[in-house]
Amino acid sequence: MRKPDTIERLYLDFDGFFASVEQQADRRLRGRPVGVVPFEGTDRTCVIACSREAKLFGVKNVMNVSEARERCPDIVLVPQKPDLYRRAHNTLLAEIESVIPIDAVKSIDELTCWLDESGREDPVGLGVRLKSTIARNVGPYVTCSIGFAANRQLAKMACKAGKRTEERYGDGLMIWRPEDLPAPLIVLPLSDVPGVGGRMEQRLARAGVYSMADLYALQPKHMRKLWGNVNGERLWYALHGYDIQAQPSERGMFGHGRVLPPESRTLPAAYEICRLLLIKAARRLRRAGYYCNGLMLWLALRGGEWSDQLKLPIVNDDQAVLAGLARLWERVRRKHSNGTQVFRVGVTLCELSLADQRQLDMLINDDRTRQKWESVSTAIDGLNARYGRTVMSLGPWKPPAGGHVGGKISYTRIPTAEDFW
């Protein structure tokens, strides 16, 4: 396994991305503490992103709006605009590509690049060029922090450390050269290691690992045992400066979730939103060239949650998945009354197979029916693509207040323009 003797990776993370894009797009928000919320008109939700001005008051992402108002009475709450953030993301990628090729986009606001010889020799100059290009061609309110290190994992951690330097937030730049390590690494909290959350910290504490220095001193096989898989050993090599490449991943599911606005928190209203989310998931399934063999439904309820799954024929058309949802919803209705409050819903199409590898179930003689409904779904997809919006759907198409059905930006997926139809 190769151990680089110089910096080879750049990791870039935009600062308070959703909030900074809002400030760049709306001059009335500039210089003010901004919190982005799922929808407007209620305090019974959380801040999903906040500006650097709000962070100075102690506001954090995923903080209840009521607590955010207590910490920062002047905070301006702005409902999310996922399509704006998607378009800003694509614009920023184009500007960065004009300076350095992008190796991998990790999320809506994070990416990584390989360094060429000039970047390795002058990382500060490269960072300045990237920041000035963004400020000049996009705007000065969308800032980023950049980390440089021998591998992607260390560059990501350096980026996070640089974001918090000199008692300020954002617009940072941090360089961790191999000869400088492990000094800047071992002073960090364990929570700064990507993938180490509260539960993993508890597991490490039970094993006598309380600090980054303790973790760094472990052996590779011990790390593997603590993590319960090879990822622990891979993390050991990454923290010690080895060139560890991300493992290729395979598509496992297509799904959508949504926090419900107050007026949609009844069972009937939640069902209608689940229908729309499932149609959006089925559209993505078809565009990617997959079929599914399973459907999962999840509901967050007052006082708990409910989930179940259903086996489907190998399908990808709207009629088949909606019929499956109706069957699952009957189970919901038998368990809960119409007065039950639903705060969040999620639908997932799983057990995937590629379209050119589809194998029909010999015990289900429905191929003619399936071909008919697949033709209907294909025709609907074609009309919607022609007009760039949902002009036809199987059943009513009435998005709830706030819209964004199927267009939510998650940590692992960046929506396409089609997701907002």
From TrEMBL:
> Enzyme class, one word?
transferase
Leader sequence segment: none
Q: Which cofactor does it need?
A: Mg(2+)
- Lineage: superkingdom: Bacteria
Q: Where is the UmuC domain?
A: 9-197
Where does this protein have coiled-coil stretches?
A: none
What do we know about how this protein assembles, alone or with others? Monomer.
| Family of the protein in this entry | Belongs to the DNA polymerase type-Y family.
State its role.
Poorly processive, error-prone DNA polymerase involved in untargeted mutagenesis. Copies undamaged DNA at stalled replication forks, which arise in vivo from mismatched or misaligned primer ends. These misaligned primers can be extended by PolIV. Exhibits no 3'-5' exonuclease (proofreading) activity. May be involved in translesional synthesis, in conjunction with the beta clamp from PolIII.
Protein name per Swiss-Prot or TrEMBL: DNA-directed DNA polymerase
Q: Which organism is it from?
A: Ollibium composti
